[in-house]
Specification:
The complex is a heterodimer of chains A (202) and B (351). Chain A has 202 residues and is an alpha+beta fold. Helix content of chain A is 23%, strand content 12%. The longest helix of chain A has 13 residues. Chain B is an all-alpha fold and 351 residues long. Chain B has one domain. Chain B has a two-stranded antiparallel sheet. The chains are: A alpha+beta (202), B mainly alpha (351). At the A-B interface, α2 of A face α1 of B.
């Protein structure tokens, strides 16, 4: 008797097949009954472009750069999101607001260029946590497919919401998140109260 | 005379169109049925329920590039699929699709031709069909194609024997006629032939799978072993011809099974049903209902072909040969002997 470590090994059996096994027919009938039973089962298919799988209300999909109530861009190009980003998907260049551009940019500094590489992004939502100006949010939109790699680098043309087509991000701003953001003296890129944060978030 | 020619031409065109249409929609139903058996949806984008899928597939086949390998024999390369398609279309002519229609003084048969050796004709033509595969596979000048062709021909030749013997037994119970019309009409009054020939039907069914190269006997075109077998070098419409011919073969063998063993256009209490509708013998409505019944039975058998394809795995080559020569041929001989003995004691055979 060889050394036996587990009871999972099975002894190979070379026994003669019984008559019903040799006939094949019972096994064939059994198999056909199994496939036939599947005729009446409901297919679990979700026909994607026509039907959409139900999403969590706080789904983290394609980003949006928000405008304020007057339609000015909230982003001040502080770079906190780029620092927080674990995938290093965010790059930006900043510029100074000129006179007469107050309706375009909320504060004196703004992002002249803001790019997110959607192939690098892991949709963790840390940019949203890090943002001190509530400018970037993840939304329940799914990033579209494309043919070229370069087309997945989304610039401001795709990221900033249109003035007449505001993107609703209230689902991401759960009461816990809002309460968290109201804590005075908060450094957004530091998790100074990890427990509370984890409780509020998913 | 003129009416005869017109009516025969119309009938030929209609049956040609039906064969092609059924073959096209078999591909759709094959995919749909496979999807149902595997808890999927199947083709659904082209038209409602994907019903336009065969058109899309046909269009694809038509517009693809025709590739003829340089090393192939071009004449034979084209002859192969043509022959295969031709023979598969030819088998349909002896199948009686319904009862005769009487209009005025003329009687119109829903059968292109009622030759008195109907079944023999079908068997003969289908065995010519193997030349299509053989020539196509050989002319490709490719070892996979040749292997596929060799497998196909040996398989079809081996299973033909058992098939023929099982049909002989059927012919004996059917009163010694080879005409398909007479065999079907003979099932009108009593039971269908399945009751007298259950073993014969089983053998015929298995052989029909082998003859049509369908799973689990699709060794000649298995993609996993032979990258498509005799289809390997074919593209565009010549490939389409092979695939189409295969589906037509499936349609014809389904029709044969429905006709030989399941009574064709007859159904239980048919006469009572027709009488209750007040229909006279020879009315076109009777033929239409009969055709519908026959067509329905045929469709059921086509579905059985597909059901088996999506259930059973492919046989190994030696298993296939063992099954054909060591099991089916002795079984069919036994069936023949039993039939003869039983029919002798029933007084149907006089020595």
């Amino acid at each position: 008797m060889a050394l036996q470590l587990t009871n999972r090994s099975k002894v190979v059996s070379n026994k003669e097949q019984s008559l019903s096994e040799k006939l094949y027919l019972p096994a064939i009938v059994k198999g056909m009954a199994i496939t036939f039973s599947h005729l009446f089962k409901k297919a679990p298919t979700i026909k994607y472009p026509d039907e959409v799988r139900p999403m969590a209300p706080v789904y983290r999909g394609q980003h949006v750069l928000k405008r304020d109530e007057n339609g000015a861009e909230r982003c001040t190009s502080c770079g906190m999101c780029a620092v927080a980003c674990p995938a290093e998907a965010i790059t930006m260049e900043s510029g100074e607001r000129k006179k007469g551009e107050e309706h375009l940019y909320r504060e004196e500094k703004y992002a002249t260029k803001y790019e997110i590489n959607m192939l690098r992004c892991i949709f963790c939502g840390l940019c949203e946590d890090a943002c001190p100006k509530e400018a970037i949010f993840l939304t329940d939109r799914i990033v579209d497919t494309d043919y070229e790699r370069g087309d997945f680098v989304y610039g401001k043309d795709k990221l900033v919401e249109k003035v007449d087509q505001r993107v609703d991000v209230s689902k991401r701003q759960t009461p816990e998140v809002l309460a968290f953001k109201k804590i005075p003296g908060l450094k957004h890129n530091e998790l100074f109260d990890g427990k509370k944060l984890n409780k509020g978030k998913h | 005379m003129l009416t005869f020619v017109i009516y025969k031409s119309v009938l030929c065109v209609v049956i040609f169109a039906i064969s092609l249409g059924v073959a096209a929609y078999s591909t759709w139903w094959e995919r749909k049925f496979a999807a149902f058996l595997q808890d999927r949806k199947g083709p659904s984008r082209a038209g409602p329920f994907g019903l336009l899928q065969p058109l899309a597939d046909g269009g694809k086949m038509f517009f693809k590039e025709e590739i003829i390998p340089n090393v192939s024999n071009k004449f034979l390369f084209i002859l192969g699929p043509s022959l295969f398609l031709l023979t598969s279309m030819m088998t349909g002519v002896v199948i009686p699709w319904g009862k005769d229609v009487t209009i005025g003084a003329d009687t119109f048969s829903l059968q292109i031709t009622d030759i008195n050796i109907g079944i023999l004709y079908v068997l003969g033509v289908t065995s010519i069909g193997v030349y299509g595969i053989m020539i196509g596979g050989w002319a490709s000048n490719n070892k996979y194609s040749l292997l596929g062709a060799i497998r196909a021909s040996s398989q079809m030749i081996s299973y033909e024997i058992a098939m023929c013997i099982s049909i002989i037994a059927l012919v004996i119970t059917a009163g010694g006629t080879l005409s398909l019309r007479q065999i079907i009409d003979q099932q009108d009054a009593g039971w269908c032939n399945l009751v007298y020939q259950p073993l014969g039907f089983l053998i015929f069914l298995i052989c029909a799978f082998a003859e049509t190269n369908r799973a689990p006997f699709d060794l000649s075109e298995c993609e996993t072993e032979l990258i498509g077998g005799y289809n390997t070098e074919y593209s565009a419409f010549k490939l389409g011809a092979f695939l189409f011919a295969e589906y037509i073969n499936m349609f014809i063998s389904s029709a044969l099974m429905a006709g030989l063993y399941f009574g064709g256009y007859n159904f239980p209490f048919a006469h009572e049903f027709y009488n209750s509708l007040g229909l006279q013998e020879g009315s076109w409505l009777i033929s239409l209902i009969g055709f519908g019944v026959y067509f329905f039975k045929t469709c059921i058998f086509i579905s059985v072909f597909m059901w088996i394809r999506w259930t059973l795995p492919r046989f190994r080559y030696d298993q296939l040969m063992n099954l054909g020569w060591k099991v089916l041929i002795p079984l069919s001989l036994l069936n023949l002997v039993l039939t003869v003995v039983v029919e002798y004691f029933r007084g149907n055979i006089i020595l």
